[in-house]
Give the backbone structure.
Amino acid sequence: MNASQVLTPPFTGSRDLSLASRHCYGDETAFREIHDCFSPMVYNVCLRMSGDPSRAQDLSQEVFLRVFKGLPRYRGNSSLKTWIYSIALNHCRGRLGRRGVETIRLDDQHWAQGPVDPARGPEENLLARDGERRLSAALLALPVRFREAVVLRDLEGLSYEEIAAVLRVRTGTVRSRIARGRERLRALLVEGNR
Amino acid sequence: MRSHLATKRLSAYLDDELPERELRLVEAHVSACATCRSRLHGLRLVVSDLHRMPAVEPPPSSARSVELEAALRWGPPPRWTHRPFGQRGIELLRNLIQLSAMTAGAIAIIAMLVAWNAARERGANERSPAAVAPEQVERLPAEDVVGPPAPTIDGARYRDAGSIATTR
């Protein structure tokens, strides 16, 4: 049975610590469980932060290397999910620089190959993909601190408190960054439509 | 003309992150202010579009590849070892004993150094008589002293001299 079928993310409390300690005591299955459970989450964050699928794959691999190395230092002060998000965003910030993205790939084939909704017609699907592509491009044009907050809130569905724990800032700062990020996104999308 | 609502407040309203009282205030303001209503609508569209964005399926990767990469970079990972019940206390006691032994040893070494230093200073003082205090000099017997004999005090002579003086 696949480990991701057994575990239901997010792990909480003692389960997180138990996984970390199992890994530290040499149980190889513990890290596999963590990897299988959190790899979609880490990959998506890396993708939204870098805007490049192949780069996101490399970043994701590096994030799990850091998780693997850092697990003996995990003390359970926050959930494993928050801890891994924190590592992922720190890593992306470090690797992608201040701007947080190397190139904005407006015409990237990846965005044109989004999932197809069978309930919609081909034209609707095309329009939806175009909308996603424009939204992704606008997201990549945001400053890193706003992008992080918007991605964590609107794409990953974290609460304000969880985002504050991941970014190590106050809840008021989170609220402000999300608002400013959304406002800029709106402005960018309005500009794009002109 | 009353002021418009801050974006921060409108955004928190969309996330249902406002306290009840503020929520009511925002609702009352938005129903009366067309500008804020339009801004709220714009933000709501952005948020709903973001929520509709699908999560991307990651390309297949395995934890094994991460483990191999980690082993290549840093060697085998450090592992914790199981410690039976009570071993922690014994380890603590052992550490305390080791610490006290080290402290006692350090004190002994310092005491020896101080004693050695004091003995050395005493030896140096004995070699230089000028530095010896007069009261510490041992008085030699009179017959051992070389040179002219010390004048003896003749008590009778003084007595006589006194009697002469008084008779004058």
Notes: Residues 87-127 of chain B form the longest helix (41 residues). The CA atoms of residues 117 and 145 of chain B lie 36 Å apart. The two ends of chain B are 131 Å apart (CA to CA). The interface with chain A takes residues 6-8, 10-12, 15, 17, 42-43, 45-47, 49-59, 61-67, 69-70, 73-74, 77-82 of chain B (CB under 8 Å).
